[in-house]
Design a protein that fits this description.
Layout: E1 22-24, E2 30-32, H1 33-84, H2 89-130, H3 162-167, H4 179-183, H5 188-200
Antiparallel strand pairs: 1-2
Domain MAT1 centre: 32-149
InterPro entries: MAT1_CAK-anch, MAT1_centre, Znf_RING/FYVE/PHD
Domain MAT1 C-terminal CAK anchor: 154-204
């Protein structure tokens, strides 16, 4: 009997996977095609995550550069205005401080709005989950099961019981049950009873 091929990594074999294809990895160890496909998918996902991380970093760098450039431009405008304008420096600086404060307040207000929206969304989902109704399963109780032994009509000699089968030596002509068969509920006496039943049924019919 040939040995069933099995993948040492995923434990799949020819019995569970009829299309099992064994391969060799870069280290020379056996590897099935499913693991090779899984490795290829993981490599593709890792490359995609790295590419997204690079794109995110690039976008954040561009945003910082634009913010710094805007800050430098605003600073130059203020310096030019302080140099060329007849308005007092305190007035110009006070105006810029007010703009900065207004900008910070707007950003803070936007963050508060975002938090409130998220909180309202969570509360809405929570209320929907609490009000969700499930269909109740109505179980109709029927009559309780009552076991009745099967009556076998044998047109022949009566069947011996289990103790008689063992004492009369019938089991000497029956192959002993293996441990796995015994674990499944099969015994040698059961096989002997079936053979005796097949031999005696309708024996007196003619």
């Amino acid at each position: 009997m040939s040995k069933i091929r099995e993948c040492k990594k995923c434990k799949s074999n020819e019995y569970t996977n009829k299309q099992l294809v064994m391969m060799i990895n870069e280290c020379g160890h056996p590897l099935c095609k499913l693991d090779d496909d899984q490795k290829w998918i993981e490599d593709q996902l890792r490359d995609e995550r790295q590419m997204k991380a690079r794109m995110t970093e690039h976008m954040e760098t561009d945003a910082r550069d634009k913010e710094n450039a805007t800050a430098v431009t605003d600073t130059r405008k203020i310096m030019d205005e302080l140099r060329d304008s007849n308005v007092a420096a305190e007035v110009i600086l006070d105006r810029e401080r007010k703009k900065q404060i207004e900008k910070e307040l707007e950003e803070k207000e936007e963050q508060e709005k975002r938090k409130r929206r998220n909180k309202e969304m969570l509360q809405t989902r929570k209320r929907a989950a609490e009000n969700m109704s499930f269909n109740t399963v109505i179980r109709i109780a029927g009559r309780a099961y009552l076991h009745q032994p099967l009556e076998l009509v044998i047109n022949g000699p009566p069947m011996p019981n289990a103790s008689q089968i063992e004492s009369m030596g019938y089991l000497a002509h029956i192959r002993n049950a293996t441990p796995d068969l015994i674990a499944g509920g099969y015994t040698s006496a059961l096989g002997c009873s079936r053979a005796l039943f097949e031999a005696r049924i309708d024996l007196f019919a003619f």
